[in-house]
Write a structure and sequence with these properties.
Largest interface: A-B, 28 and 32 residues
Number of strands of chain A: 11
Radius of gyration of chain A: 14 Å
Mean pLDDT of chain B: 93
Structural class of chain A: mainly beta
Mean pLDDT of chain A: 93
Helix content of chain A: under 10%
Shape of chain B: globular
Strand content of chain B: over 45%
Oligomer: heterodimer
Chain lengths: 114, 114
């Protein structure tokens, strides 16, 4: 089955700098890659996603890139702000054409230093 | 409703007891997912429903775990003969229809087995 590896497990950046989180996946059939942000005591919240027919997607300060050949995908946060501090999870799914399970990475705890 | 609702928010039970955890998905969402999240880990897939049927239950750890969704809306996760290792946050998510896996999560039920 699908396996998603995520690194780093913790990341501390100065406010205003960029943060990058990287993930790899094992199942070449995966075609949907969401990213979730989880704050303490809350459920994960979708912040951006990308499908396999796209190599890059941006939404304001957040961007995701996908390299299907290498089975890598990454989250980039620019101009980081204190409210970006949270745990971030990458995930992969074969569910573009039909609903299916979403497999998560182990998470990255991002801390923004003032 | 406005979002995915899970009840109770916290549950403390004695080892060996039976528990039920409830999930109310977003109205109209046909896909429903259950995940388990241990401290410092990513959500671990348990089971997902498409309508009333379990489309994939490959993540259920053993036969003490069972889930139902009899009318294609509310779902109940049932755990028999609870063990201390079952202690975790149980997350529920729902998504609109086949063809999209943008999943919205509830806040979870924190289960503690003592």
């Amino acid at each position: 089955g699908e396996n998603v590896e995520q690194h780093p497990s913790t990341l501390s950046v100065q406010e205003g700098d960029s943060a990058v989180i990287k993930c790899t996946y094992s199942d070449s059939a995966s075609n949907y890659f969401p990213w979730y942000k989880q704050e303490l005591g809350k459920g994960p919240q979708l912040i951006i996603d990308i499908r396999s027919n796209v190599g890059e997607k941006k939404d304001q300060r957040i961007a995701v890139t996908l390299n299907k050949t290498a089975k890598h995908f990454s989250l980039h946060i620019t101009e980081t702000q204190p409210e970006d501090s949270a745990v971030y999870f990458c995930a992969a799914s074969t569910g573009y054409s039909s609903a299916s399970k979403i497999i998560f990475g182990s998470g990255t705890r991002l801390s923004i230093r003032p | 409703g406005a979002g995915v609702s899970q009840t109770p928010s916290n549950k403390v039970t004695e080892k060996g007891k039976y528990v039920e955890l409830r999930c109310d998905p977003i109205s109209g969402h046909t896909a429903l997912y259950w995940y388990r999240q241990s401290l410092g880990q990513g959500p671990e897939f348990l089971i997902y429903f498409q309508g009333t049927g379990a489309a994939d239950d490959s993540g259920l750890p053993n036969d003490r775990f069972f889930a139902v969704r009899p009318e294609g809306s509310v779902s109940t996760l049932k755990i028999q003969r609870t063990e201390r290792g079952d202690s975790a946050v149980y997350l529920c998510a729902s998504s609109l229809m086949p063809g999209t896996t943008e999943a919205f999560f509830g806040q979870g039920t924190r289960l503690t087995v003592v």
